[in-house]
Amino acid sequence: VEQRRLSLNQYTVRPWSLERAVAACVARDIPSIAVWRDKLAEVGTARGAQLLRANGLRASSVCRGGFFPDPSASERARRIDDTRRAIDEAAALGAPTLVLVCGPAAGQSLADARAQVAAGIAACADDAHRAGVRLGIEALHPMMIAERSVIATLGEANDLAALVGSPAVGVVVDVYHVFWDAHVEVEIARAGSTIVGFHLSDWRTPNGGDVTAKRAMIGDGCIDFVSLARAVTAATYAGDVEIEILNEDAWKDDLDVWLDTAVQRYREIVPG
Amino acid sequence: VEQRRLSLNQYTVRPWSLERAVAACVARDIPSIAVWRDKLAEVGTARGAQLLRANGLRASSVCRGGFFPDPSASERARRIDDTRRAIDEAAALGAPTLVLVCGPAAGQSLADARAQVAAGIAACADDAHRAGVRLGIEALHPMMIAERSVIATLGEANDLAALVGSPAVGVVVDVYHVFWDAHVEVEIARAGSTIVGFHLSDWRTPNGGDVTAKRAMIGDGCIDFVSLARAVTAATYAGDVEIEILNEDAWKDDLDVWLDTAVQRYREIVPG
């Protein structure tokens, strides 16, 4: 098994700076990295782009734009502007994808919030297209609906991408968020060439702490990686595969061991 | 607002015996109760039935049958037998519905487990029909997939009921489990007269402890009860409405206050 499509999503090793994460990729022959904007801001976009280039690393994606819903029109406009800045940052890094976390309802009905998500994405689609960046709508697990995303299934993400109808808008398949869905393989097939990201971690039921940071090491949970990876490959996705294992316990522990284990599990479990 | 359709799901006041829960219903003019089998076993089925009858209470449902998937055929047969016993208990109490919690994959693929759920329900459907009890397939929130149920959406529950194709098999709509779903109102309409239960509690994201027992008091979370209740009524459901607020913190506190609050919120929030 080779790892030419492997990417380290930077929040897998969240406490590390971009410099340190880049060095860790180089040391492990990981050819790609997904960059978070807070980490990029610490060094500046130009310096970040230079850092990746100097080390021969691709950027698989930038995380993240979105969080569109809000009762206030001016606040919604601010979120759209922020997503446009994120598009510029993705373009500067040469990242093909900006991951969108769509945002919670913010006190509104789910239906109203979903309409605001659609409007927000539509407002950014031309900017993304001009910048050569694709917006990846990421469905988040339904347990995150109140804080993170009113878009909770890959089916909804596909519907939303179809509604916006721009070549710059696609979907991200993160196994942690969608593995439970009886229709996930059908929706992966439906997504086809609109898939702009594939993210790996494993599911164990959160038992305390922050539900957004309780993802399990690949292989320590119950997700069927082989079936999902085959479905994504059959859908023609040939881009980078991110290991994105947000885990607040790991962040307090030895991250070199955590990352070594993740790479090993990727090589053992994920088909080439 | 009247409360002639209000039912107390017994696990809302889980530490209480059946006797005490029945007395609490009588004291509050709650005309119906959903009985859990462990609580019924403490007094015996005949005595439990007599207790309800003597106090003029209906049984809205018995909780629960199911947990069908297992790698072992003999264990699967045992689960089916246990569900048949639960059907008998529901019949003895005059409960129209036996709630099914379908069960987790138990180390198998989700697809295999779902097939075993379908086989398990099919094996019990005639027994239920003869007993005058309807089996209510309850979709559980996707965060419970690894421990409780491979059936995670109302759409899947509807598909499963259609697959089994028995007049004795329907679905239970529990707002906590399904409110997040963009298709929930469509699936409620599709369920129509196969809806055999409607359960209320509210959603706040679990932040520790047992995710099965972190339901919020009606009105303390983000669920749109009015829309969901209207959809269920439009689907022609006219049966009892259960308050089922499983909360491990409440179970350690004053349950009379908890129940008083639940009844008050029901009267304030849920349309008649």
Key traits:
homodimer; 272 residues; eight-stranded parallel barrel
Explain the layout of strands and helices.
2 copies of one chain form a homodimer.
Chain A: E1 6-9, H1 18-27, E2 32-36, H2 37-43, H3 45-54, E3 58-66, H4 73-93, E4 97-101, H5 110-131, E5 134-138, H6 154-164, E6 169-174, H7 175-178, H8 184-191, E7 195-200, H9 225-234, E8 241-243, H10 255-269
Parallel strand pairs in A: 1-2, 1-8, 2-3, 3-4, 4-5, 5-6, 6-7, 7-8
Number of DSSP helices of chain A? 10
Q: How many β-strands of chain A, per DSSP? A: 8
Decide which structural class fits the backbone of chain A.
Answer: alpha/beta
**Which percent bin holds the helix content of chain A?**
40-55%
> Which descriptor suits the 3D outline of chain A?
globular
The span between the termini of chain A is 6 Å
Give the helices and strands of chain A as they follow along the chain.
Answer: EHEHHEHEHEHEHHEHEH
Oligomer: homodimer
Strand order across the biggest sheet of chain A? 1-2-3-4-5-6-7-8
Main sheet attributes: strand count, strand direction, barrel closure of chain A: 8 strands, parallel, barrel
Instruction: Give the largest chain-chain interface (CB within 8 Å).
Output: A-B, 32 and 32 residues
Low confidence ranges of chain A: none
Strand portion of chain A: 15-25%
Please compute the radius of gyration of chain A using only Cα atoms. Answer: 17 Å
